[in-house]
Amino acid sequence: MPDALNYGLLVDPWAAEGYQAASGAGRSGCFVPLPVPNRGGFRPQGPNQPAAQPNLSAGRFADGYDSDFNCRDFAVQGTTSIITPVEAGADNVKVSGVADFVNGQKVIVGAGDNSETAVVAIVGTAGATTSGQATVKGTKDIQVTSAAGFTAGQSIVIDDGVNREMAVVVSVTIVRRQRGGPAAPGAGPAPMDTITVTAPLTKAHAAGVHVSGTGLTFAAPLKKAHGAGTQIAGSAPTPGAPNQYSIKL
């Protein structure tokens, strides 16, 4: 019997290669996941993930393998987004998530005329923010504009150039911010999130410097500049041809 696939949410369990022993409630079979946010297993990652992800693809994984069970045989390609802009020639990007990527993986950076391919050399950690106030040498606490996306045990990069240093997060404190109207007179500055690191900082840092995860490092420099929000898509679920959307090199 040839394969039959269902696309979308109306599923015939006999045609969908799911549960086929009986009909009834909860026996809905399996359908190919839809390549859109919050459906079919695709989950936006991090607070800066764009609301819409273009150029996503659902495909058979691994390519050419069929276990007669669509819940297991199909996947939506993994995606993330660039958090801070990068210039042409950069080999590292700060991203909102790294869960779907592995060392040696070929990825597609950008879309349309500004897309290019890259190979991931090192999968680091996610997240990017800025320091909310100056940080003195020797402290372990970094006040940041937002600590969302950072986790204990994560390696981070603080500042750029000669002031750049690495640290490991020991804890993250996220404050509850007041919603609505202006703060009461005399209330003072609004509290900020805090990233606490395992060892005292070896340098002082100004307010507004980058504090980020180590991101994705590529095997070769990028040929093009890419802005914040640019999509990076893995090609694992659609590794064959023509089961792969085209890009401009």
What does this structure look like?
With 249 residues, the chain is mostly beta strands. The protein has a domain at 128-175 and 191-214: Beta Barrel (Elongation Factor Tu (Ef-tu), domain 3), CATH 2.40.30. It has 1 helix and 14 strands. It has one helix at residues 70-73; strands at residues 58-60, 74-76, 79-81, 92-93, 106-109, 116-123, 128-130, 141-144, 155-158, 165-173, 193-197, 210-213, 216-218, 231-234. It has a 6-stranded antiparallel β-sheet with strand order 3-14-5-6-13-4, with no helix packed on it. A 6-stranded antiparallel β-sheet has the order 7-12-9-10-11-8, with no helix packed on it. Strand 9 and strand 10 form a beta hairpin. It is elongated and about 60 Å long. The chain starts with 57 loop residues before the first strand and ends in a 15-residue tail after the last strand.
Features of this protein?
single chain; 249 residues; mainly beta; Elongation Factor Tu (Ef-tu), domain 3; six-stranded antiparallel beta sheet; 1 helix; disordered C terminus
